[in-house]
Amino acid sequence: MQKPKVFVTRKIPDKGLNLLKKHCEVKIHPHDHVISKKELLAGVKWCDALLCLLTDKIDKSIINANPNLKIISNYAVGYNNIDVKHAASKKIPVGNTPGVLTDAVAEHTFALMLAITKRITESDQFTKKGKYKGWAPMLLLGTELKGKTLGVVGLGRIGAEVAEKAVMGMEMNVLYHNIHKKPKFEKKYNAKKVSLSTLLKKSDVVTIHVPLIPSTHHLIGKKELALMKKTAYLVNTSRGPIIDEKALVTALKNKQIQGAALDVYENEPKLSPGLNKLDNVVLTPHTASATIEARQAMSEIAAKNILGVLFKRFKSPSLVKV
Ligand code: GLV
Ligand code: GLV
Predict the structure, then answer these.
(1) Is there a shared CATH topology between the 5-98+292-310 domain and the 102-283 domain?
(2) Distance from Cα 99 to the centre of ligand 2, integer Å
(3) pLDDT of res. 295
(4) I need a surface site. Which of 20, 21, 240, 313 has the fewest CB within 10 A?
(5) How far apart are CA 206 and CA 209, in angstroms?
(6) Mean per-residue pLDDT for 19-36?
(7) Residue nearest to atom 5 of ligand 1 (CA)
(8) How remote is the CA of residue 105 from the centroid of ligand 2, in Å?
(9) How much helix, strand and coil, in percent to the nearest 5, is found in the chain?
(10) Domain 5-98+292-310 sits in which CATH superfamily?
(11) For residue range 149-174, what is the model confidence (pLDDT) as tens digits?
């Protein structure tokens, strides 16, 4: 019997690829850059199962290109790059990779939070550039986290993990904004559900953990930034377009808030003009899930999502509910 064909849009860690290769014919797009639309179309037409990345826009034209496509397996927890509704209308399941990158992203969120409040990257540059001329009482003063309030926007797996680390590790207080109330979580961590405006007004650090959907686009804009304390920091490891980046640059330039630490951008990989010129920002290139552990586990889940759809004897760990 002919093996089912899997098209992978770019090389990913090998765990899932090795698994797929045991049961399927696997073609991996050979170039280590974002695949062109033309190459993507050709790959989709060829395959039974597509393994794609968050940088691949899987729109109607891609989905329509192969009426026999069996599954779209996204190598990411977020799936805003895929027209999931259209895929569902064609009865094509979409897979994602939740859970296994929660720790990586939560740790990275904390790394950003510590870096911006302790001015780590600024201090690193200062020291490396030879500007350190001796201990000084007013040199590069930062902020402490203990006893401060963390505002978590979106209390899903990642938001909850960040909140737990904040309470257990840093003795911070937690406010959260979420559709659902989480009574068990509230009790365990003495956390409180509040409106977004209350969260913005009261928090010393605001961290974003919502998915990108129409209702979260520009959730944090000029008006919301204006509610934040002058001494507050904003951290984003979710999706760039949730923050109005231009408004954020203005707020940072005007010292309306103290600082921001970002892993994601509104128009990746482009940065809004002026963002990279500011001292009060720490920027990483969408690498919050970039640990060997998380990326291998994501590779495995993305592969298993495919095998579960193609073969009765496997089970897909995570198909997106529409
Ligand atoms: C990374 O951004 C992901 O959604 O997995
Ligand atoms: C992601 O896995 C989330 O639900 O926060």
Answers:
(1) yes
(2) 7
(3) 98
(4) 313
(5) 10
(6) 97
(7) 76
(8) 10
(9) 40, 15, 45
(10) NAD(P)-binding Rossmann-like Domain (3.40.50.720)
(11) 999 999 999 999 999 999 999 999 99
Domain 102-283: CATH superfamily is NAD(P)-binding Rossmann-like Domain (3.40.50.720)
Q: How far is CA 104 from CA 27, 144, 292, in A?
A: 28, 23, 9
What is the pLDDT, as a whole number, of residue 258? Answer: 98
Which residue, by CA, sits nearest to atom 3 of ligand 1?
76
Helix axes 292-310, 102-117, angle to 10 degrees: 150
Q: Which ligand is nearest to the CA of 237?
A: 1
Position of tokens 């259209």?
86
Ligand 2 site residues, Cβ closer than 6 angstroms: 77, 98, 102, 156-159, 209
The pLDDT of residue 48 is 98
CA of 197 from ligand 2 middle (Å) equals 22
Domain parsing of the chain, residue ranges = 5-98+292-310, 102-283
Considering only CA atoms, which residue is closest to atom 1 of ligand 1? Answer: 76
Confidence of residue 315 (pLDDT cuts 50, 70, 90): very high
For residue 163, the ligand closest to its alpha carbon is 2
The catalytic residues are 239, 268, 286
**Cis previous bond, 241, omega within 30:** no
